[in-house]
Amino acid sequence: MKVNNKWLFLLGLLCCPTILLAQVPSDSANNAPIAIPTATVVDEKEFANPSVIGMGKSKGIIVNYEWQPNFGITSTSPQDNIGNKQGEVRRNNKFDLKLYAPLVNNPHFKMVAGFNYAFEEFNFKYPLPPEYPFYSNIEDRNLKSISGQLVVLRPINEKNFYIVRAKGELNGDYNSKQVAVPDYLKTTVEFLYGWKKSPSYSYGFGAQLGYALGRRRIYPAFLYNRTFNPKWGIEAILPANADVRYNQSERSLWFAGFSVDGASYNINVRNIGIPELETLELRRSEIRGRVRWEREIYDFLWFGVEAGYRKNINFNAFENEANDGFFFAKREDPVIENKLKGAALFNVEIFLVPPRRFLKQ
């Protein structure tokens, strides 16, 4: 298989491990607290960083598809005009595209820019429960997320480092003519301070101001990356995700663990039961257990497959996002409280990693 040199150069620029993001295994969880930049072997000897020996290669471009089939939904509302219903979701589809590019790279300061486009949709089993327009309003509705982020890794010395990430997202069912930034914008800020104890062990503490459980809150973060031997390791950012890693070979890795996933969407609604109500904020949060396999296809091209089980925590609809100050959203009762039954999940991913010729330079 022949590859044009200009494409190899582009792949090296996008995927170079000295500056790009090492994907936490639960990266499908869009709100994992910290995205971790990697470093070269040379940097590991001189400057601290969170990566450890045995971790998978950095991912520069990622295309991901997820499918959750056949699960029940029970909806209740304190509003008499809306009422209560039960339904059946035939499938929940999610598509995700991620791109990363370097902005600054020197031994004491590294900065990465990231772009993400994602959408998910719900398809209900027919006939839909009558006289319950909430289901009709989200049926086949593309819940989109367009986001940009900046990640900074600052090695302080050979033992300490810190990471800062700022992310902005437009989340909702908008189209290009309807985007109103104040209505759809969600912001996340994260900080982590870490220690590099050895090439096979790093840990750190930090916090995230974001939407990991659907509401804007401050969440703690504890980083723990450790490789115990050539085959086994742990990669975790608690409480958001944790995985046991098994290095089957240089070209094949297995992961088993859990992740917490969350999102917040602003959606336009029609005939919901309250005439003056035109928008709802849909907050989703869930916990997942999964097994994942990553395998090389050719040099810089890899694929991943994942199977697991999703347990819903929250899928409630609120009248609007009520922020009481910068740090906390005031407590409010949902307009519609939805309980989703557990569901199997299946995930397939294609991603690009640094070509070997760049790793050897």
**How many beta-strand elements?**
17
Number of domains: 1
Biggest pleated-sheet summary:
14 strands, antiparallel, barrel
* Overall average pLDDT: 82
Shape, per Cα inertia axes = globular
What is the element string, with H for helices and E for strands?
Answer: HEEHEEEHEEHEEEEEEEEEEH
Helix content: under 10%
Protein name: DUF6268 domain-containing protein
Signal peptide: 1-22
Keywords: Signal
Domain DUF6268: 142-349
What do you see in this structure?
The chain is mainly beta. The chain has one domain. Helices cover 9% and strands 57% of the residues. The protein is built from five helices and 17 strands. The strands form two sheets. The protein has a 14-stranded antiparallel β-barrel with strand order 3-4-5-6-7-8-9-10-11-12-13-14-15-17. Strands 1-2 form a two-stranded antiparallel ribbon. Strand 11 and strand 12 form a beta hairpin. About 11% of the residues have low confidence.
How would you describe this structure in keywords?
two-stranded antiparallel ribbon, 361 residues, 9% helix, 14-stranded antiparallel β-barrel, mainly beta, signal, DUF6268 domain-containing protein, DUF6268, single chain, globular, 5 helices
